[in-house]
Design a protein that fits this description.
By secondary structure, the chain is mainly α. It has six helices and no strands. α1 packs parallel to α3 and α2 runs antiparallel to α3. It is rod-shaped, with a radius of gyration of 70 Å.
Amino acid sequence: MQSQTTYAALSPTVSHERYMQRIRELASTTAPDSETLLSEASALFAQLKALNRATNAATRDHKQRTAEARQAMDHTHLGLQNLMYERRHFEKEIEKCRQFASVYQDIPLYPLDEFLARAPQEVRTEDILKNEHQLMLNRLSFELAERQRLDEQRKRLIQERDDLLKESREQQARLDMINTEIERVSKAGLEAQTKVTELVPVEVKRTEDSITDNNMETSVQLESIPGETAGPE
């Protein structure tokens, strides 16, 4: 009975090998008291069943915790993979940005000295001059403003040129009209002069003929007067 009490009080955490060793010892023992042997064996089997149940419960608990840990690990691993993917994506985008050839690199900007001399004070402060990125943005903005101003000036000069050309064409048209009128008057004058020239010789001839006739008549009259034609006696 002492042995039965001793094994009955054993903790369920006693190793399985210890119980099996004791059962093997009892099986090989030829004790005369079979009831004592049976009681001790029954106690050992009961302890084995209790240990088996505890082992199964512990196994299930460990499996559950292992599954939860594996799930948490898989979730963490998935999050790590997503972070690594995002990292590679950002690295590629950064490299693309570094290799990107922007248009502003080919724009002829004002030299830095001229920018500092002409730009407003608020776009060239000390803090801005220390920040290369912001300085480049301000230079591009200043370049845009200057080009817009020069473009407006160009449009205004083109409009003034067009107005002057229009006025010049109008004046040229008036001059052409005046020249046409002068040519018409000159042509009319030349035609009148030609007609006068054609008429003048006829009148001169008539006048000469009239004078000749008058002279002849005068001579005849003088010859017909007595004594005027005779010589002195």
